[in-house]
């Protein structure tokens, strides 16, 4: 919401996320999710060019949407990937304790003690929150199953469904013909290896422009980092290509 406000009233901003309503049909593959989102977008704008953006898991959905739009003869300009990696774009590092200590001190020198302590605090909180939610989800599943009832759509594990969809996704063999704007957080998880362009250069025929935003994966959405985020978005929207070919009403970020 804050990002949309910073972009101004002349930039419509549509967010798409399955599973928010009880009556939602939960789609379990990225091609199906992409096709569903496109049907929703076409109720607002039947034809392109379209601005498609995807954050995290949504990057894979945005890529698939762009592929489906191109196959239908539509234009996507620009395509934005926000903290989103292609399959195999990042992967966990098997590290020794000594390496982790060395990496932590390197991050400390680069980011400062306050930023690094905030990062550690967030990681610990996310681990705790995930453990609580896992236990609660297990209890809910057991309770509804014992009662012979289906778990409501709002309580279904969308994160788990999305994770499985990402694991099962095989991008179209034909590369996407177009450019990608890649927005990345400056603070990266120390226990992961990041490919230089998060693997997208293997899936497109075009150029990749990278923009760096202060904060970590979730912190880019928070003040004051989101202000830099909005400035980067405006730079993309106001670039020559976007300005001449992208109607302002075409914005349709994917979450």
* Amino- and carboxy-terminal Cα gap: 13 Å
CATH homologous group name of the largest domain: Alpha/Beta hydrolase fold, catalytic domain
Radius of gyration: 19 Å
List how many beta strands DSSP finds: 9
Main sheet: which strands, in order across?
Answer: 8-5-2-1-9
Folded structure, characterized:
It is a single chain. The protein is α/β, with parallel strands linked by helices and 255 residues long. The strands form 3 sheets. The protein has a 5-stranded parallel beta sheet with strand order 8-5-2-1-9, with helices on both faces. Helix content is 44%, strand content 15%. It folds into 2 domains: 182 residues, 3-Layer(aba) Sandwich (Rossmann fold); 58 residues, no CATH class.
Walk me through the topology:
Blueprint: H1 2-7, H2 30-42, E1 50-55, H3 58-71, E2 76-82, E3 90-92, H4 97-111, H5 113-146, H6 158-168, E4 176-177, E5 180-185, E6 192-194, E7 204-205, E8 208-213, H7 225-237, H8 240-245, E9 251-254
Parallel strand pairs: 1-2, 1-9, 2-5, 4-7, 5-8
Antiparallel strand pairs: 3-6
Helix pairs in contact: 2-3, 4-5
Features:
alpha/beta; 2 domains
Question: What is this entry, summarized?
Answer:
The chain has 255 residues and is α/β, with parallel strands linked by helices. It is built from eight helices and nine strands.
């Amino acid at each position: 919401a804050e990002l949309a406000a910073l972009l101004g009233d002349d930039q419509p901003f549509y967010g798409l996320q399955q599973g928010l309503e009880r009556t939602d049909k939960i789609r379990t593959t990225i091609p199906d999710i992409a096709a569903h989102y496109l049907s929703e977008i076409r109720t607002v704008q039947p034809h392109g060019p379209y601005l498609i953006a995807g954050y995290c898991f949504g990057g894979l959905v945005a890529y698939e949407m762009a592929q489906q739009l191109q196959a239908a003869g539509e234009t996507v300009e620009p395509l934005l990937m926000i903290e989103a990696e292609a399959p195999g774009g990042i992967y966990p590092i098997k590290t020794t304790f000594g390496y982790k200590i060395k990496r932590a001190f390197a991050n400390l020198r680069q980011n400062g003690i306050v930023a690094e302590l905030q990062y550690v605090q967030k990681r610990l909180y996310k681990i705790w929150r995930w453990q609580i939610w896992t236990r609660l989800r297990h209890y809910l599943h057991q309770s509804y199953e014992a009662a012979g009832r289906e778990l409501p759509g709002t309580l279904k594990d969308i994160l788990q469904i999305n994770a499985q969809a990402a694991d099962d996704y095989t991008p179209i063999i034909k590369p996407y013909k177009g450019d990608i704007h890649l927005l990345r957080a400056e603070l990266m998880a120390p226990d992961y290896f990041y490919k230089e362009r998060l693997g997208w250069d293997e899936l497109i025929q075009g150029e990749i422009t990278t923009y760096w935003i202060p904060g970590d994966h979730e912190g880019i959405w928070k003040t004051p980092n989101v202000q830099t985020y909005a400035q980067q978005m405006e730079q993309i929207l106001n670039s020559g290509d976007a300005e001449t070919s992208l109607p302002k009403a075409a914005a349709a970020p994917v979450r």
